Each structure stands twice: as structure tokens, then as C-alpha cells.
């Protein structure tokens, strides 16, 4: 156990250069964006003098290294800066919007896993059969269309034509008030408050965007499950187990599935990152007040602090996630060399 | 198998049930609430703050008052519009202008109160105007257009009397007090929240509305919605009919259209021309040509081929105006081509004498220094939808003249910098519209040397001089019309920018009435009413 | 299937080419869907090669008189808002879309494999540094990183390819690294080393092929994602330059016409995009079967 604890500490230490890398890259990337935030924010009928005033006010008249040092200094004090476009502290904005994105993403992922992993296992146990082919066609169809297209089609069919979906106006219809803030996840907060009408309202709003995202993520999960299961099932130890007469259920779930989980978990981590990215587009279609649409807005108007804060928050999220995945590796796969870490 | 099917049916029934429940509520809540969808995000409650975007100007319009406002007129199509020619009281009860035109004295309405119940005084006006000219950026620029530059021009004589002193008389001063910028703030309350670093309480006003306007913001979820609630003590005009207005941000045009068609929102503000033209026969759609605004094709005189007047004429005859008007604007707005060429009035925007005539275009091209054509870049802004179809049509048309163009898409943040600040785009589109509706005001921004919207780098001494002379001259001055007509004549022959058409602001309403168009292109919710749809 | 570990180590020099070909034919015959996918792929390649010469209309020619026409005999897929023939545009777009996806994936595959193999095989410093660099890229939300890169560099085809390639590198590198890491101490590796093979040779010929099956799945997914990525960039206005026909930009622009009833603008390019992604995905499975050392006979 001590060795493992050390390994975890090592792993956390390794996250530090990543964070530093992210800070540097996001700083450079935002500065490389074309467009002059001062001109953008000085407004409609700005003159060269008023643009210059704005530049000084935003601190953009200082040389880049100095700006960077100021930024790092701010970070060390736990200050992500002020978004120039919304004029509010970036950390406050992220705090308000991150739960919206996470709630959507996690709902979609859970939905996708619940469908895709059984499909993948099913396909792998009967490779080449019509079930296998059907699974392939099904999940592939899901990933083959751009999310914004699927989203608009779903709105068109279920809201516009059939009228069974609620109006695509974000997280809650304007009839309901936000549930009292505990976690920021409306489903959880509404459940805590015991406000089931609001809970249903929030769940109804989630259905279409989560389906859109889930359709998109079925394929990677199902296919990785299938591929991994196939590899596992063709491995020696399975054949040995089968030869030893272990019952097929135990072989399938006890041995093959457990081994197949390794690449599936890897994929999940990547898919999560991917889905948060795809969120950007889905949020736009469904007027979802998430972090993705915030980042796009910020990027378009060169709102440096907001973009950097967003990227940093995402980075922290992923570093934590990767850490968990790496640890899961060592739990799932005994072959994985912890000694080298 | 049968069990799982039954559970599935039960589950879907439950979903459907909750949805129809929501719909019932929706109908009840609609009684004194209006829901408006807007595709822009509101990023501040304070117009004076650096970085406040256009969409946020509506807060200044709806939650604050100015001394004066514009009257209302009915357009030929029966819809309502503001009336630039009539100035009416808002917070001021009356005003007098001194004989030399240099001093305007306002008397405030005695019953005017702020939303917290305190009285509106001339000191509040003074503080608010000082703020507008001091904070820099857009508010100060806009104040300057009316000759309002320094705090010492404003004086509160007593609680009811406020004086504006001008350096020179100008026809733009009074109208400039009716634009959204010089709005009046509860200075007592603002001062309580001011600090040494923030003497103008920018922080506080960014998040709170403390005016005397018809509505107050009771809830602002950035990126989602603004909820307005009526202030019953408003004296600036007739009390609004609607108690609560929810301004929802809906970024996707397709979603916005689905919502208004299904009747889940009462008003879709600033919808694309295409949706407007298609919804027009089903809903009530207002497409108001925007006063003093022109969508132009600009040729930058810093680039060699466009210095040749024959090239500019050739392009002007090659442009497929009708096709652009249909493809980019779906016929919404007003055509600006195929005029007679006679200039005997001061109407602006006006039809140019040019029309699509490829033979004439080729003649001009042959006479130019580039009979075989040249290569150039045609730039468009990513977020301005009308530019792309227009660009593709222009590209195809000028190819006939041997002009090979590459279309370059420039993202929003860079567009302003490249086109207006650096003025570095050889061949591009431009969409300036002046808030103050006089031709000289348009010329001031778009045709005078080095002005922001003069993205063609146009320099003409005579136009510059004439603009200077006419800018502050009263429009009934006997010399005014002649000078303006001379300006039209020069720029329509020189063609630094080719007017294409006058765009429209499209608003669809479903279950609401009395929408009124404003030059600032913001939803003014004060006049709206609900109606049975 | 034969014994998996030792005898399955591929020895390309000793494999007669007819044997490989025979294996391909065998896999295709075994799996009709894969065969169909290869057929589709041939069709796509054909459209990419000769499409521009056989389409009925100039894909760039506008026609103000025939705007937004529904599909008809004249215009099989209808016309768009500028009167351009959607069928011609869809077919002509094939070449560009294939170039974008294949180039982007090839770049990330090559760079990712090399980096991942080095990191996994050498371990230690190289592993630590490379892993941190990859983690740094992964730590960005990928689509937003792609947006940032394209926004910063400008929206040209080359930049869209680079951005797509960069965001995909870690996927390959991490997969290869994990596989190599597991196998570098495996029996067959040690055997190959003892037989006097150099590190590079062991890595390239003995260990790397084991990483190919999961990577093939990844490639097939990524080829599709690359096109979808370009489509997403188009949706927020960072796609290829107009008037170049490209599926993503056509779907993105057409999507706004769905609610108004002009479904053909988005549907047909969407269908082709879907077809291409479909083909890539199904081919990935087929390729996996072909290259998987354990399925070699």
C-alpha cells in the first residue's frame, strides 16, 4: 500500500508541469488570436484615443512578459481575473456555468454507457452475426452526423412538428425558478429541495440535448468495448479458462469483461474530453447556458481572462480525471508497470 | 419482453405527461408576462462601462430615462417607428434654447422619482452627464457628437433646473440627448457604492439598475435571460401594459424561429431576413428599413487597382444588385440602385444611378489601367450573415471583368480591427448606420478622412469641408440642401463605397402588439402589449 | 487460429504476398459489411478523382432564377440559397473532405505512434516528458483547442488539418504507449531482443503491430471525426473559405434551413458526410481484422 500511496503522490506531482504547460499555452494562444480586444471593447464609434484609453484600462498596453507575470501573480492569489465581456469575475462565471455543462455531459455519458457497453459486449460475443452488424450500423449512424445537425433535427421533429418536447430554451422553462443552489446540478438540487415539478421540468429540458450528445458518444464506447472484448476473448487465459470448464458467464464477465475494461476506461476519459468539446455546439443549438458557449463567446471577442480561466478549469478537471483513470488502470490491470512511474 | 415494453410505454407516458403539464402553466403565466427571444447576449446593465456590448443598450432604454425622447410615427406599412423630427419630453417637462443656440435650459418633471422612491433632481442629471463624458470609450464619443465634451458644460441650477452649455450651436445636440447614452442615474444611490478607485460606481451599476425608467431588472442570468418588472411610478410616458417581460437569449436562429412559430414566445427580435420573409404571411412581422444605414461594397483607395476611378465604376456596373438583395436580404429593406441620377433632394440613403449592366462595366474596365483585370481579396465578417451570399455573387460578377477574388472570412473580433481600425482590407463589405438621422452625420463617419467607418480610406477635400460645414448647420438653413446635394454628387461619382441596399430590422410578434422600431435597433419593451393570439 | 503469442509474430519478409492478399480476400468474404464498406470507399475515391469532371453543373455557378428549388430531375439534390446545384457541390466536395480527414489522421497517426512508442518503450525521462506534453494537449477541451488554433492561424484548409491533427495526436500516442508499456517486458519481446534484434526493429516489427488493432478502430473513428470537426468549425464560422464546397460547411449552413422546410440543403451533404464516416468506421473494423496478428492464419 505504501508503494501505491507514493505512486499516487508521484502522479499528482506530475500533474504540476501539465498545469504549467496549460497556463503558458493558453496565454500564448489567446495572445495569438487575431483581433484587438481594445478595439472590440471600446465600442461602436470608438476613436483611436478611446481605443487607447480602453487598452490602458485593460492592461494590454504593457509588454507581454509583464502581462504574463501579472497573470501568474493573480493566479497564485487564486484570482482568475475579470471577464471583460461580462465584467464579472471569471471564477464566478465558471462556477455558474460549469454545473450546467457537467450535468448535460454526465447525463449524456451515463445514457451512452448504459446503451453502448451492453451493445458492445453483445456484439463481441457474437462477432460477425447479424446482431454484431446491426450494432455497428446503429452506433455508427449516431456518430456520423454533426451534433448541431442532430440537435436541430431533434428540435424540428420533437418540438416543432410533434410538440412533445419542451421548448429548447436552456435548462429550465421560464415557468420554474432555479432550485436552491447546492451543487448547481438542477436534478440533484431539485431532488434535495423535494421540488419534483422543477425536477421534471429540468429533466424534460435535458432529454433532447443529452440524447443528441449520447448518440454521438455511443460509437466510441460501443466499438471500443467490442474491440476490447474481442481481444480479451481471444486471449490465452480465456481459452484456458474455457478449457478448464468454467461456466461461460463467469468467463465472459469475470475475466474477459474485466480485462476489456482497461481500454474502455481509457476511451471514456477521452470521450469525456471530446464530449465537453462537442458541448460547445449542442449548447448553442439548445440555448444551454454552459461553459462551452461561454468559451466560444469569449474566444470570438478575444476575452483573454475568460478563455484562460475556462481552459485552466478544464485542464484541472482533466488532470483529475486522468489521475483517476491511471489509478483505475493499476486496479484493473495487474500487468501495468507501476514501478516505472 | 412484454414487461419491458410496458415499462417503456409507461416511462414515455410519464415524460409526455410532465410536458403537457408545463404547457398548461405556460398559458396561465402568459397573462401579464411577455417573453422575447433575442439572439445576442446581454453582458452588462450599464451602458457606460467599457466593454458593454450593443445588446445591453436595451437596459439603458428600458430601465432608465433621458431628459428627452423621440416621438412616434406610423410608417406606410402601418407599423410604428420613432420619429427623428419630433423631440418629446421624458424626464424634462420643458426646455428652452437661448437665442444664440448656446444654452439649453431644462425643467424637470416635478413628480419624477427613481425606482427607490427618491426624487429625481437636476443634480442627478449633472452627475449622470458628467459620468457619460468622463468615462471614455463609446459613451464619451457619442456625447461628443452632440457637442457635449466636458463636465463644466453641465450645471444644476436648482433641483428642477438643468443647463447645458454648448461651445457652438448644433442641430445634433438635442437629438443626441435622446439617444440611449445620456441616461439619468440615481446619483445618491450610486455615490453610496462609489469608491476612490471607482468614483462612478461602475461595479455597482454593472449589476444593478438604479434609474427612473419604466422597468427595472429584477433578475439577470448572464448568458440566459434578463427579467424586467414594471416600475409603476414611471412618469416618462404612458404606463406600460405588461407587468413582466422576460428577455431570453436564444443564439440559434432555427430555434428562435421554431419558438415563435409555435407561439411559445411573444416576440422574436432581430430575426434573419429569410425567416422574416417566410413568416410574414403567418405571423405579424415588422421589417423596418433602418434609417441612415447602408450595406455597402467598399474599395480601399490604399490599394493600387482601386485608385483607378474607371475600375470602381466598372465594379459598380458589374454588381448584381437584385440578386444580392434577394439572396442576402430576401427582399427585406430597400433597394438602393437604378436611380435617376438627378439629385434634387436630401434624402439619404438614396438610390444610386448605377444598375447591373455588364457591357457598361466592361467598357469602363477597358478604359482603366487594368483592362485585363487583377487579383484581390474580398473580405467578409464571419458573424454578419448577409456578407457571404453577397460576396459569392460579387465574386462571380467581377470575374467577368477579369478581377479574380479570393473570399476571406474574418472572425468577429478581428473584423473591426482589420476593416475599421487598421483599414487594411482592399475589397470588403461595410454596414454602418448612423444613430442621428441626418446625411451629414453619415458622411461624418463614413466619408471624412480617417473616420472610423471610412474603411475605404476615402480622402476628398471638398467632401471633408462640406461635411464640416453642414454637420452642425440647421437643416432648414437655406445653404444646407445645396451643400448636401453637392456631397451626394461627389461621393456617388467617386464611389469609395458602392451602396447595395438599405437593410431592415426584422421582428416577428405572435401574441403581442405595438412593437416600435428605434434607430438604436434595441427592443423597446415599454410600448408592448399582449393580445390574444 | 493458431497459437497467439510466439508464432504470430509477423515476419513480413517470409510472408509471400499472395498470402497477405489471400488473407484480405478471406476477411472480405467472411464479412459482407466490410466488403460493402470497401466498395463504398472505392466509390468515394472515384468521386474524389473524377467527380469534378462529371457533375452536371458548375458547383460554384449561382443562378438567381433557381433559388432553393426542391430536388427534381434537373437538380437531383435541389438547389441552395444562391441557386447552386447541391448534387454537384456534394460530389465535388468529396475530394476536399477526403483530403482533410486523411491528411489530418495520417499526420496524427504518424506523430502519435512515434511519440507513443518512444515513451512506452524507453520509459524514464522520455516517457515522463512526452507524457506531460500529451497530457497538456489532452487537458484542453479538444474542440475548443481546435477552434483556438484555427482562429489564431486563420481559417485555411491547411490550418484546419493541422488543428485536427494536433488534437488527435494524444489519442494515438496514449494508445501506443499503453500497449508498448505492457508488452516491452513480454516473453516474445525478450525473445526477439535475445535473438539480436535492435530496439527499433523490435519496437517496429514485434511490439507495434500489437497496438495496431485498437489503433485501427481509432483511425476509423478519427477519419469521421476529422470531417465532423471541420463541420463543427464551419458551424461557428471557422470553416473553409466560401465558395469552396465542403460537406461540413454545407450541413452547417443548411441546418438553418431545416425549420423553414428546405431540408435538402442539409440532408444531402449530411447524408454524404454520414456515408463517408460510415465507410471509414466499417472499414476500420475490416482493417482491424486484416492487421490483427492474432487473426492471421
Counting helices, strands and paired strands, the structural category of chain A is: mainly alpha
Structural class of chain B: alpha+beta
From the N-terminal CA to the C-terminal CA of chain A, the straight-line distance is 15 Å
Radius of gyration of chain A: 24 Å
Oligomeric state, counting identical vs distinct chains = heterotrimer
Shape of chain A: globular
Q: What attributes does this structure have?
A:
heterotrimer; B: 533 residues; alpha+beta; seven-stranded mixed sheet; six-stranded mixed sheet; 21% strand; C: 297 residues; mainly alpha; disordered N terminus
Please tell me about this protein's structure.
Chain A is 75% helix and 0% strand. With 341 residues, chain A is an all-alpha fold. With 533 residues, chain B is an alpha+beta fold. In chain B, 33% of the residues lie in helices and 21% in strands. In chain B, helix 11 runs antiparallel to helix 13. The radius of gyration of chain C is 22 Å and the shape is elongated. In chain C, 71% of the residues lie in helices and 0% in strands. By secondary structure, chain C is an all-alpha fold. Chain C has helices at residues 17-30, 32-54, 86-122, 124-139, 142-153, 157-183, 187-194, 199-235, 247-255, 264-291. Chains in contact: A-B, A-C, B-C. At the A-C interface, helix 1, helix 6, helix 7, helix 9 and helix 11 of A face helix 4, helix 5, helix 6, helix 8 and helix 9 of C.
What's the quick description here?
The complex is a heterotrimer of chains A (about 350), B (about 525) and C (about 300). Chain A has about 350 residues and is mainly alpha-helical.
Amino acid at each position: 500500500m505504501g508503494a501505491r500511496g507514493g505512486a499516487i503522490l508521484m502522479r499528482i506531482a506530475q500533474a504540476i508541469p501539465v498545469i504549467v504547460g496549460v497556463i503558458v499555452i493558453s496565454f500564448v494562444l489567446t495572445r495569438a488570436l487575431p483581433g484587438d480586444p481594445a478595439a472590440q471593447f471600446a465600442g461602436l464609434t470608438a476613436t483611436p484615443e478611446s481605443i487607447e484609453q480602453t487598452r490602458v484600462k485593460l492592461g494590454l498596453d504593457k509588454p507581454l512578459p509583464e502581462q504574463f507575470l501579472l497573470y501568474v501573480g493573480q493566479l497564485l492569489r487564486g484570482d482568475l481575473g475579470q471577464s471583460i465581456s461580462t465584467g464579472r469575475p471569471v471564477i464566478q462565471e465558471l462556477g455558474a456555468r460549469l454545473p450546467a455543462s457537467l450535468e448535460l455531459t454526465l447525463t449524456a455519458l451515463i445514457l451512452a454507457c448504459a446503451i453502448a457497453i451492453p451493445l458492445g459486449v453483445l456484439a463481441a460475443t457474437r462477432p460477425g452475426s447479424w446482431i454484431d452488424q446491426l450494432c455497428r450500423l446503429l452506433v455508427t449512424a449516431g456518430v456520423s452526423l454533426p451534433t448541431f445537425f442532430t440537435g436541430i433535427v431533434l428540435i424540428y421533429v420533437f418540438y416543432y412538428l410533434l410538440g412533445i418536447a419542451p421548448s429548447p430554451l436552456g435548462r429550465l422553462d421560464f415557468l420554474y425558478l432555479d432550485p436552491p443552489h447546492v451543487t448547481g446540478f438542477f436534478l440533484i438540487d431539485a431532488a434535495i429541495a423535494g421540488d419534483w415539478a422543477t425536477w421534471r421540468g429540468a429533466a424534460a429540458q435535458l432529454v433532447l440535448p443529452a440524447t443528441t450528445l449520447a448518440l454521438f458518444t455511443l460509437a466510441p464506447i460501443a466499438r471500443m468495448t467490442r474491440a476490447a472484448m474481442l481481444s480479451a476473448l481471444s486471449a490465452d487465459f480465456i481459452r484456458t479458462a474455457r478449457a478448464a470448464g468454467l461456466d461461460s458467464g463467469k468467463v465472459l464477465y469475470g475475466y474477459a469483461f474485466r480485462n476489456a475494461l482497461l481500454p474502455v476506461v481509457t476511451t471514456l476519459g477521452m470521450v469525456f474530453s471530446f464530449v465537453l468539446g462537442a458541448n460547445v455546439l449542442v449548447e448553442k443549438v439548445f440555448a444551454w447556458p454552459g461553459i462551452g458557449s461561454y468559451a466560444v463567446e469569449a474566444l470570438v471577442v478575444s476575452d483573454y481572462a475568460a478563455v484562460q480561466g475556462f481552459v485552466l478549469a478544464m485542464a484541472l478537471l482533466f488532470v483529475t480525471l486522468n489521475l483517476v483513470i491511471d489509478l483505475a488502470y493499476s486496479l484493473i490491470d495487474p500487468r501495468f508497470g507501476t514501478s516505472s512511474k | 419482453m412484454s414487461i419491458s415494453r410496458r415499462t417503456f410505454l409507461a416511462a414515455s407516458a410519464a415524460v409526455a405527461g410532465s410536458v403537457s403539464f408545463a404547457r398548461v402553466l405556460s398559458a396561465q403565466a402568459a397573462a401579464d408576462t411577455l417573453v422575447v427571444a433575442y439572439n445576442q447576449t446581454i453582458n452588462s446593465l450599464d451602458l457606460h462601462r467599457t466593454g458593454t456590448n450593443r445588446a445591453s443598450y436595451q437596459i439603458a432604454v428600458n430601465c432608465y430615462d433621458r431628459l428627452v425622447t423621440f416621438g412616434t410615427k406610423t410608417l406606410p406599412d402601418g407599423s410604428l417607428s420613432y420619429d427623428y423630427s419630433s423631440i418629446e419630453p421624458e424626464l424634462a417637462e420643458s426646455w428652452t434654447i437661448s437665442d444664440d443656440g448656446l444654452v439649453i435650459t431644462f425643467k424637470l418633471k416635478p413628480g419624477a422619482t427613481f425606482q427607490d422612491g427618491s426624487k429625481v433632481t437636476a443634480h442627478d442629471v449633472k452627475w449622470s452627464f458628467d459620468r457619460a463624458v468622463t468615462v471614455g470609450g463609446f459613451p464619451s464619443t457619442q456625447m461628443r457628437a452632440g457637442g457635449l465634451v466636458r463636465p463644466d458644460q453641465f450645471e444644476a441650477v436648482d433641483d428642477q433646473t438643468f443647463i447645458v452649455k454648448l461651445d457652438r450651436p448644433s442641430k445634433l445636440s438635442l437629438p443626441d440627448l435622446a439617444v440611449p447614452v445620456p441616461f439619468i442615474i440615481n446619483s445618491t444611490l450610486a455615490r453610496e457604492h462609489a469608491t476612490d478607485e471607482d468614483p462612478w460606481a461602475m461595479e455597482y451599476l454593472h449589476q444593478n439598475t438604479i434609474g427612473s425608467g419604466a422597468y427595472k431588472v429584477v433578475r439577470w442570468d448572464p448568458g440566459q435571460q434578463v427579467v424586467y418588472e414594471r416600475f409603476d411610478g414611471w412618469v416618462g410616458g404612458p404606463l406600460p401594459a405588461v407587468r413582466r417581460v422576460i428577455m431570453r437569449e436564444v443564439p440559434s436562429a432555427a430555434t428562435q424561429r421554431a419558438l415563435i412559430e409555435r407561439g411559445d414566445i411573444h416576440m422574436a427580435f432581430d430575426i434573419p431576413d429569410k425567416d422574416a420573409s417566410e413568416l410574414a404571411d403567418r405571423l405579424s412581422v415588422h421589417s423596418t428599413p433602418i434609417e441612415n444605414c447602408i450595406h455597402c461594397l467598399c474599395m480601399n483607395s490604399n490599394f493600387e487597382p482601386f485608385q483607378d476611378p474607371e475600375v470602381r465604376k466598372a465594379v459598380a456596373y458589374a454588381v448584381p444588385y437584385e440578386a444580392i438583395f434577394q439572396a442576402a436580404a430576401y427582399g427585406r429593406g430597400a433597394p438602393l440602385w437604378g436611380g435617376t441620377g438627378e439629385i434634387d433632394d436630401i434624402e439619404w440613403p438614396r438610390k444610386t444611378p448605377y444598375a447591373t449592366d455588364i457591357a457598361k462595366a466592361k467598357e469602363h474596365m477597358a478604359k482603366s489601367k487594368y483592362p485585363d483585370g487583377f487579383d484581390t481579396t474580398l473580405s467578409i465578417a464571419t458573424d454578419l450573415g448577409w456578407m457571404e451570399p453577397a460576396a459569392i455573387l460579387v465574386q462571380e460578377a467581377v470575374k467577368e471583368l477579369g478581377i479574380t477574388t479570393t473570399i476571406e472570412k474574418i472572425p468577429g473580433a478581428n473584423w473591426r480591427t482589420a476593416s475599421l481600425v487598421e483599414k487594411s482590407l482592399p475589397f470588403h463589405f461595410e454596414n454602418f448606420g448612423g444613430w442621428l438621422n441626418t446625411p451629414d452625420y453619415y458622411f461624418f463617419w463614413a466619408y471624412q478622412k480617417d473616420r472610423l467607418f471610412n474603411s475605404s480610406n476615402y480622402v476628398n477635400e471638398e467632401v471633408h469641408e462640406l461635411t464640416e460645414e453642414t454637420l452642425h448647420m440647421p437643416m432648414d438653413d437655406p445653404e444646407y440642401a445645396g451643400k448636401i446635394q453637392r456631397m451626394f454628387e461627389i461621393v456617388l461619382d467617386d464611389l469609395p463605397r458602392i451602396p447595395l441596399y438599405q437593410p431592415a430590422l426584422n421582428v416577428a410578434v405572435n401574441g403581442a402588439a405595438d412593437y416600435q422600431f428605434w434607430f438604436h435597433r434595441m427592443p423597446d419593451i415599454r410600448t408592448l402589449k399582449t393580445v390574444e393570439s | 487460429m493458431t497459437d497467439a503469442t510466439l508464432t504470430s509474430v509477423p515476419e513480413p519478409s517470409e510472408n509471400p504476398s499472395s498470402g497477405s492478399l489471400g488473407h484480405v480476400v478471406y476477411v472480405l468474404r467472411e464479412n459482407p459489411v466490410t466488403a460493402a464498406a470497401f466498395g463504398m470507399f472505392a466509390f468515394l475515391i472515384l468521386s474524389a478523382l473524377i467527380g469534378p469532371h462529371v457533375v452536371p453543373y458548375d458547383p460554384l455557378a449561382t443562378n438567381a432564377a433557381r433559388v432553393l428549388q426542391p430536388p427534381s430531375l434537373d437538380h437531383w439534390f435541389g438547389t441552395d440559397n444562391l441557386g447552386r446545384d447541391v448534387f454537384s457541390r456534394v460530389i465535388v466536395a468529396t475530394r476536399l473532405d477526403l483530403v482533410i480527414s486523411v491528411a489530418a489522421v495520417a499526420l496524427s497517426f504518424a506523430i502519435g505512434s512515434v511519440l507513443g512508442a518512444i515513451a512506452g518503450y524507453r520509459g524514464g525521462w522520455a516517457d515522463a516528458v512526452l507524457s506531460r506534453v500529451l497530457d497538456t494537449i489532452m487537458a484542453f477541451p479538444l474542440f475548443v483547442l481546435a477552434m483556438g488554433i484555427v482562429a489564431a492561424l486563420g481559417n485555411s484548409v491547411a490550418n484546419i488539418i493541422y488543428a485536427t491533427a494536433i488534437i488527435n495526436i494524444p489519442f494515438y500516442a496514449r494508445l501506443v504507449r499503453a500497449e508498448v508499456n505492457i508488452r516491452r517486458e513480454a516473453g516474445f519481446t525478450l525473445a526477439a531482443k535475445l535473438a539480436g534484434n535492435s530496439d527499433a526493429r523490435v519496437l517496429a516489427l514485434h511490439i507495434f503491430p500489437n497496438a495496431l488493432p485498437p489503433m485501427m478502430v481509432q483511425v476509423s473513428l478519427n477519419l469521421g471525426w476529422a470531417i465532423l470537426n471541420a463541420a463543427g468549425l464551419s458551424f461557428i464560422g471557422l470553416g473553409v473559405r466560401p465558395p469552396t464546397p465542403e460537406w461540413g460547411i454545407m450541413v452547417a449552413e443548411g441546418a438553418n434551413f431545416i425549420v423553414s422546410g428546405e431540408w435538402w440543403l442539409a440532408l444531402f451533404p449530411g447524408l454524404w458526410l454520414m456515408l463517408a464516416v460510415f465507410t471509414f468506421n466499417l472499414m476500420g473494423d475490416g482493417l482491424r481484422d486484416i492487421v490483427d496478428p492474432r487473426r492471421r492464419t
